[in-house]
Write a structure and sequence with these properties.
The chain is an alpha/beta fold and about 475 residues long. It is globular, with a radius of gyration of 24 Å.
Length: about 475
């Protein structure tokens, strides 16, 4: 009988290739890139059901509440959410999950899946994972490969062994991992029929992976083991110990293990996959119309061909006229225009924006918080205007500021406001003043979202000008903690 498969959702990436929709502060796995669910939610739903245990998640500190909220929306309770002190690529993240799982069951099957991919046919993929389980239980490290449909230079490849049968429906012998090729080599590999795209999805037992690290990457194993042993519970999360984690190398599981291990096998999955590694992939996955165009609700194409026109803001209507093979993506604070063939260079654009100090490189005007969200509407040298939305029953930290005072005007719902120990209710069309240095808090005592406009004035308006005295979300000091 096949054991339960324990999904591991890797959710710490920054997703810069889908800028401006995806940024460091809110990467693509949590965004609505395709469909009505985030990519993270789609991955969690895909890897649930009979034969699958509750998921493990590895993510960063800034995303832990987003992970919890998006899983709760699906009615999925995670087995564990591990918080990395710093991102160290996939090898340490996967190993930390394996060590955590091995505490209770060393033979547990661990299915590693990036949370920002699109996979067609959720049931078909679950069947493929279960078909690969016996090979993983026997001690092999199983990777998943995708039959290539074009000479793609943005993916790594897997070379099938000479005796492999790609249509067998069970894991096949794997000769080796292959680095991302140039265009000529990619065309040769496509023509040969002996190569698959490396999907970055793996299945093995926890003990099997740990043995592989003992043999091939002990320099990764020891600090990760100490970080797991020193992990501390924090609300519903598990924080890996920061001290040992500082010594963890930054390395992918491909480099650390898969390119060295002899006990490899590959499960071929041919029912639809994309890593959405660029806007060209989003265009392809979104189902272009008869003219080859993909348009969002707030975008209009006139005389365009084979183009992606997408506006993420109801306040920005994007219109393209006579465009061919172009990508145009607009948010409320940034616009990307690129030829589809140059989609992979978006990362270069993000680096250029960082170099010039543009906040749009990494930050959105709106920010998600465990209590709700806020967006910056207007910013000047000594003032800022925000719209703040607080979820029903949510409460912000008890805090003060060194450098700014605030006016709050409630426009929807009712706010319960505390200022220097005095508590009052502020309803629609009422306002309240928070003097500089006052210890204050707001909460939403109602059953509908509460919305207010905040006007800040002062010499410094940064999010890190927060001194927290109490916080139900245990965020510590600083902008997010």
């Amino acid at each position: 009988m096949t054991a339960l498969i324990h999904p591991l959702l890797l959710s710490g990436g920054s997703g810069t290739r889908l800028w401006p929709l995806s940024r460091k502060s809110f990467p693509k796995q949590f965004a609505l890139v395709t469909g009505t669910e985030s990519l993270f939610q789609a991955a969690a739903r895909r890897l649930s059901g009979p034969g699958f245990a509750a998921p493990l998640v590895v993510t960063g500190n800034d995303f832990r509440f987003i992970v919890a909220e998006q899983l709760a929306t699906l009615g999925i309770a995670p087995q564990a959410v591990l918080i990395e002190p710093e991102g160290r690529n996939t090898a340490p993240a996967v190993l930390a999950a394996a060590l955590t799982l091995a505490k209770d069951d060393p033979d547990a099957l661990l299915l590693v899946a990036p949370s920002d991919h699109v996979i067609s046919g959720a049931a078909a993929f679950r069947e493929a994972a279960q078909a690969a389980a016996a090979r993983a239980q026997a001690g092999d490290l199983v990777t998943f490969g995708i039959p290539p449909t074009r000479p793609e230079t943005g993916y790594g490849y897997l070379e099938l062994a000479p005796d492999a049968d790609a249509g067998a429906g069970v894991p096949q012998p794997l000769a080796r991992f292959v680095e991302k090729p140039d265009a000529a080599r990619a065309a040769e590999m496509l023509a040969s029929g002996q190569y698959l795209w490396n999907a970055g999805i793996f299945l093995f037992t926890a003990a099997g992976l740990i043995r592989a690290f003992e043999t091939h990457a002990p320099e990764v194993l020891e600090p990760v083991r100490r970080a797991v042993e020193g992990a501390a519970a924090d609300l519903g999360f598990m924080r890996l110990a920061a001290g040992p984690w500082d010594a963890v190398p930054n390395i992918s599981i491909d480099y650390a293990i898969m390119e060295k291990a002899p006990n490899l096998a590959v499960m071929v999955y041919a029912d639809g996959w994309s890593d959405l590694g660029g806007w060209d992939a989003v265009w392809q996955e979104s189902g272009p119309d008869a003219q080859g165009n993909v348009t969002s609700e707030h975008a209009t194409a006139i005389g365009c061909e084979r183009s992606l026109l997408r506006s993420e803001s109801g306040r920005v209507e994007l219109v393209g006229i006579g465009l061919k093979d172009l990508i145009a993506v607009a948010t409320c604070d940034a616009v990307l225009v690129a030829h589809r063939s140059e989609a992979q260079k978006v990362k270069e654009a993000v680096e250029a924006l960082k170099a010039k100090g543009a906040s749009q490189a990494t930050q959105f005007p709106h920010a998600h918080r465990p209590w709700g969200m806020f967006e910056s509407l207007v910013t000047g040298p000594r003032f800022q205007v925000k719209r703040i939305v607080v979820k029903p029953g949510a409460v912000l930290s008890l805090q003060s500021h060194h450098h700014r005072s605030e006016h709050w005007i409630v426009v929807e719902g009712t706010a319960k406001v505390t200022i220097d120990g005095e508590v009052r209710l502020v309803t629609e069309n009422q306002s309240v003043y928070i003097p500089l240095g006052a210890v204050h808090r707001m909460e939403n005592p109602g059953k509908v979202p509460m919305v207010l406009i905040e006007v800040q004035t002062g010499s410094y308006l940064g999010e890190d000008d927060i001194i927290r005295y109490e916080d139900v979300y245990a965020r510590g000091q600083g902008a997010k903690g």
